[in-house]
Amino acid sequence: MRYATMGALAALALGCEKDPPRAPTVAPAAARDAGAAGVDAGRPDAGPTERVVLRLRVKNVDRIPLRLLTNPDTNELIHAHRVNVNSDRAAVYAGGPRVERVKAFPIGQMPMCTADAGAGYGGLGQPGSITLAPGESFEAARWDGILREEVLDPQRGVCARELAPTPARYRFRLDQPQREGAPDCIPAVTAWPIPEDAGVPVLEIRCRNAARDAGARAAPAAGG
């Protein structure tokens, strides 16, 4: 009996040596990205099935906080246009017949026309808001390089179809529904196709408060 007890103790000690106690894992705190526009060399957070060819950020370039209205339907938040011009600068300001509205992101919960069945179209939730500090930005969208359009199918009703983008410049503009006090934003532009060896471009839509807030921007800080 004594030898058995000693053997059990030895086995227990050996097991402790093989499996030392581990420190508890602490999840990192979430934070919004305040970096500048650039290029992502890789796609570490895209997932095995998600294709990302372009990231869009909205940045507050003002000297005071900027409140923006958001929408879970990315097509409502970011308006995309195909622009047939020869430069990015021209694409920012172009209008008229050279500009065509396109949908660069999935259309709500609309089923694909190629699917056997769909759940139908439904909203994605209530719009929200976000307030950015001066110099702060947030990722507003990721584009997979696919365009969408709504199609009226005689058998299924309205459904979505995917299209390959045609070579052109694509302009992405932040849409804000408020009638007064809408922020002043400069759209982001990219030429298509994007070179495959260029990484994932990160473009910024740069915004500041409405012109009527210019006095607030120029006002000195309290106690200054």
Protein architecture, described:
The chain is α+β, with helices and mostly antiparallel strands and 224 residues long. It contains four helices and 13 strands. It has helices at residues 2-18, 74-77, 88-93, 214-218, and strands spanning 38-40, 54-60, 66-70, 78-83, 99-102, 128-132, 137-143, 147-153, 157-163, 168-174, 184-186, 188-192, 200-208. Strands 1, 2, 7, 11 and 13 form a five-stranded mixed β-sheet that branches. The protein has a four-stranded antiparallel β-sheet with strand order 5-4-10-12. The protein has a two-stranded antiparallel sheet with strand order 3-6. Residues 1-36, 41-48 and 218-224 have low confidence and may be disordered.
State the main characteristics.
4 helices, alpha+beta, 4-stranded antiparallel β-sheet, 5-stranded mixed β-sheet, 224 residues, single chain, globular, disordered N terminus
Report the uncertain regions: 1-36, 41-48, 218-224
What is the H-and-E element order?
A: HEEEHEHEEEEEEEEEH
Instruction: Provide the residue-averaged pLDDT.
Output: 79
Sheet-strand content, in percent, reads 25-35%
How many strands, what sense, and barrel or not for the largest sheet?
5 strands, mixed
Number of E strands: 13
Shape: globular
Instruction: Determine the fraction of residues in helical runs and give it as a percent range.
Output: 10-25%
Q: C-alpha Rg, in Å?
A: 26 Å
Euclidean distance between termini CA atoms: 84 Å
How many helix segments? 4
Structural class: alpha+beta
